[in-house]
Design a protein that fits this description.
alpha/beta, Rossmann fold, 35% helix, seven-stranded parallel beta sheet, six-stranded mixed beta sheet, 343 residues
């Protein structure tokens, strides 16, 4: 059944498993702005249905616009959030909303103080996609070192061009941030016999020591390393953390990886770094403006390998995050405090 508000949403009512379970969500509506939720988060979705919630789901492959969100949020008791923006206007239009459960980690699309003021819990899933993002980061590093995209392109074109790349073993890497993703990446890199440094004012020093990671200043994290990988949250104080000044501290031929948020890297500065050769290549899963324009100057460089903000996109990560997101909603309406309340 398609709701009158928009063909971009689909109404699904929960079935009754048993009276006590279904009572939790009876008469309550969960709006799901996250794309491909039914396809990728089946276990979590079924948990909501089994508890009697009615779901209004985004049926498209693109995030809801502000207008589409406003069309549905007025009836919502809970929201499974993708990257649609929950600003003051959206929250003001949601008198019954009690929880925004983010399908992922980043919360830069939610006005946390405004939600707190309205008594709305905002929940995310820290670490739920850490393995997926760490593995993609490692994939970027290996692809750049061995120039895999260039070799694939040449082979498909019938050219037997054998590009000479580099080995990861024995290299050095500077991690900007030492949270869940960076810690997993350090663990995965340990078999390559790398020297690993990290900058993080809030680092778990015991975890760093066990991983053989030296916690250093921002400047020292990027000096004299072969690879710099960005893993900090995007906040006002970290916007354009990687700028001309920081790039100038890097040695010639550094590889830069960003699988965190596009706003952490000044793209104009990165282009200048690539033009000068100080940056030998970049692996980017994120951009300052998404979807990225095909005219972006970064695409002039064949030493740039990109992905469409797909770091978390593994079946395993979606299953974990989808379940945790749904469980948080069940917890709230069962009188329990969710595991990760961010506000």
């Amino acid at each position: 059944m398609v709701t009158p508000a928009s063909a971009a949403a689909h109404l699904q009512k929960g079935s009754r498993m048993n009276d006590s379970t279904a009572e939790v969500g009876a008469g309550r509506t969960v709006i799901v702005g996250a794309v491909r939720y039914a396809e990728l988060c089946g276990r979590g979705r079924q948990l909501l249905l089994d508890h009697g919630f009615t779901l209004i789901e985004n049926q498209t492959t693109v995030p809801w616009t502000a207008e589409q969100l406003l069309a549905h949020i007025g009836t919502a008791d809970a929201a499974v959030a993708g990257v649609e923006v929950f600003d003051q206007d959206a929250l003001a239009a949601a008198p019954a909303l009690r929880i925004i459960s983010r399908l992922g980690v980043g919360l830069d699309n939610v006005d946390l103080p405004a939600a707190r003021a309205r008594g709305i819990d905002v929940v995310n899933v820290p670490g739920g996609n850490a393995e997926a993002v760490a593995e993609l980061t490692l994939g970027f590093i290996l692809s750049l070192l061995r120039r895999l995209p260039r070799m694939d392109e040449a082979a498909r074109a019938g050219r037997w061009d054998r590009y000479v790349g580099g080995e990861l073993a024995g290299k050095s890497i500077g991690l900007l941030g030492f949270g869940a993703i960076a810690r997993l990446l350090a663990s995965r890199l340990s078999g390559f016999d790398l020297t690993i440094k990290a900058y993080d004012p809030y680092a778990d020093l015991d975890a760093a020591a066990k991983a053989g990671v030296d916690i250093v200043s921002l400047e020292d994290a990027v000096r004299d390393v072969d690879i710099v990988s960005v893993h900090v949250p995007h906040l006002a104080e970290t916007h354009h953390l990687v700028d001309d000044e920081l790039i100038a501290l890097m040695r010639e031929g550094t590889l830069l990886i960003n699988t965190s948020r596009g706003g952490l890297v000044d793209e104009a500065a990165l282009v200048r770094g690539l033009d000068s050769g100080r940056i030998a290549g970049a692996g980017l899963d994120v951009f300052e403006h998404e979807p990225v324009s095909p005219d972006n100057p970064l695409f002039r460089h064949d030493s740039v390998v990109t992905a469409p903000h797909a770091g978390a996109d593994t079946k395993e990560a979606y299953d974990r995050i989808g379940w945790a997101t749904a469980q948080a909603i069940v917890d709230v309406f069962s009188g329990r405090t969710p595991v990760h309340v961010a506000n």
